[in-house]
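User: Design a sequence. Structure:
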């Protein structure tokens, strides 16, 4: 495997340093992270309507595809998405960028609202669990993760969502950092995809792997980038279609 390792230096990171929320880049002093649109990577599935090879990553901003990603993960945020199930739906019925509070207020029937008590949360509604176990098609709010990543070759930022069967591989990855009590940006991650099959067909899931633990000195530029973006709302452009699981404007 030809993996590109970190080549970004502290001087590269300083190009995007902000002072009181504004860039120090000449000509962009009046702008900040809220004015910058970040691309989102998604996995091309066999049923995807986008052009490209199934199992490859697709970047929404410019339609670039590639088989794998070599990144430093700056931060991981939990989230939830609820799709109505309508085929022409382009915006999720409800979403949460922190897996705590949904975007839709609780209605007169007591649904939606806080994620922990939402009717569509599988873990707090036993009726949904029984219906799923019985093979019924039900509307369920899906849990997942949003990853803010920096490309190891040039430091460019992008988002990656992990939902469904890709949740567990990210949990396994996060657990490795938690056990070592190290931040996610203290290692280089190679993210590929893996083909799986079940009764519903075949699909690709994320297959992240730590390929290099970084020294304290090698971690510095990524930590600077993380601190630079901490607390900033990230804007992204996303052609929202059911199943793509976007979570727009998460705060990191």
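Assistant: Done.
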């Amino acid at each position: 495997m030809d993996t590109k390792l970190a080549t970004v230096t502290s001087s590269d990171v300083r190009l995007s340093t902000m002072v009181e929320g504004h860039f120090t880049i000449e000509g962009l002093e009046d702008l900040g992270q809220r004015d910058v649109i970040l691309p989102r990577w998604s996995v091309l599935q066999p049923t995807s309507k986008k052009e490209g090879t199934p199992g490859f990553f697709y970047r929404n901003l410019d339609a670039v595809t590639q088989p794998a990603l070599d990144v430093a993960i700056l931060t991981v945020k939990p989230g939830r998405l609820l799709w109505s199930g309508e085929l022409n739906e382009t915006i999720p019925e409800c979403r949460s960028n922190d897996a705590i509070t949904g975007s839709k207020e609780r209605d007169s029937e007591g649904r939606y609202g806080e994620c922990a008590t939402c009717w569509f949360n599988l873990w707090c509604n036993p009726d949904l669990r029984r219906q799923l176990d019985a093979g019924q098609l039900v509307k369920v709010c899906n849990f997942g993760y949003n990853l803010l990543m920096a490309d190891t070759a040039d430091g460019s930022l992008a988002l990656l969502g992990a939902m469904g069967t890709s949740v567990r591989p990210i949990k396994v990855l996060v657990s490795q950092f938690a056990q070592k009590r190290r931040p996610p940006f203290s290692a280089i991650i190679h993210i590929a995809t893996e083909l799986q099959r079940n009764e519903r067909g075949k699909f690709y899931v994320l297959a992240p792997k730590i390929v290099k633990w970084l020294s304290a000195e090698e971690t510095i530029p990524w930590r600077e980038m993380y601190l630079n973006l901490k607390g900033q709302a990230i804007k992204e452009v996303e052609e929202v279609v059911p199943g793509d699981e976007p979570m727009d404007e998460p705060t990191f």
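Residues 1-16, 238-252 have pLDDT under 50 and may be disordered. The radius of gyration is 19 Å.
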